[in-house]
Amino acid sequence: MMNAMKIGVDLGGHTLTSALISYGGPKPRIEKIDKSDTPRSRSVKDIMEAIASAAERLSDGHEIDALGVAVPGMLNADRRRALRLPNFPVEWDDLDVLGAIESALASRGIRAPVGIENDANCYALGEGSAGEAVGISDFVTFTMGTGIGCGIVNGGKLLTGAHGMAGEGGHVVVRGDAPCGCGGKGHSETLAAADGTSARAVAKGLPEDFEKLWRMRGDPAADEVLDVTIDAMARTVATVCHLLDPEIVIIGGGMSKAEGIADAIKSKSTEYLSRPFKNLPDIRISRIGSDAALYGAANI
Ligand SMILES: [Zn+2]
To answer: What is the 3-state secondary structure (H, E, C) of 64-98?
Structure first.
């Protein structure tokens, strides 16, 4: 029997990454990757065109069994429409994204079942199918970068909630009243993500770049900035552990490359955890990194 071939697409604000993934071995495998700049207009028409031409290049005339797109924003409960994509034009609001992808593909003769899912959720699905969480039914993923993305798999299923919005772990209320870009306040993301960390570092005359700053650990001024980042993430992890009792917590995203960050978050989270939970968090760094979103998108 031929291996199933699927395409996973990660629609980012700057880069559109697509992968042809084969299923048949013990784990899915990326056979080919196609990267292009996201059209600068970010218009529906230009992006649909870019997705269809990437799919055409990757499939190269062969049949595709499914295509899924990781979308940067909130989707409606039945995963057909976008509710709001924060960094994309308003024409995307309430758009039938699934229908638009299907017709863009059909215009190039590609007929395959299509799915869409929030990008942070795709990341979790990808860790479940090809990463740290293979065979694990209860886990949470965080991507620490410009923002804090989160995806939750509970009892083997992606947790989506009543309105499709579950798993917004970057917006856990941790401390203080600092306004968050989402419209709320006191959220994890404002303190733990790279943007907030950089802003606090720059205000003290320290490097803006997170990896540089992390390498300065031990310097009192740098520690003051980084302790806030780690503390906010530790509170987030503790809250999520109390709510969901995951077997593992996976941390990915650009900031996860800082050596020792998982251990720092783990030891701080212990202070916030209730006694029966104290030794439980198995916090791991993602090994497949940004490929997780591609594996997840292909497997929606
Ligand atoms: Zn928020």
So the answer is: CCEEEEEECCEECCCCCEEEECCCCCHHHCCCEHH
The yes/no answer on whether domain 4-121+292-298 falls in CATH 3.30.420.40 is: yes
pLDDT tens column, 155-181: 999 999 999 899 999 999 999 999 998
The CA 196 to ligand 1 mean position distance, Å, reads 12
Overall pTM surpassing 0.85 (yes/no): yes
Using the mean position of ligand 1's atoms as its centre, give its distance from the Cα of residue 180 in Å. Answer: 5
Burial label for 173, CB within 10 Å (0-12, 13-18, 19+), is middle
CA of 169 to the centre of ligand 1 (A): 9
Q: Can you name the CATH fold of 135-286? A: Nucleotidyltransferase; domain 5 (3.30.420)
Query: What region does 117 belong to: left with phi over 0, alpha with psi -120 to 50, or beta?
Result: beta
CB 159 within 8 A of CB 150: no
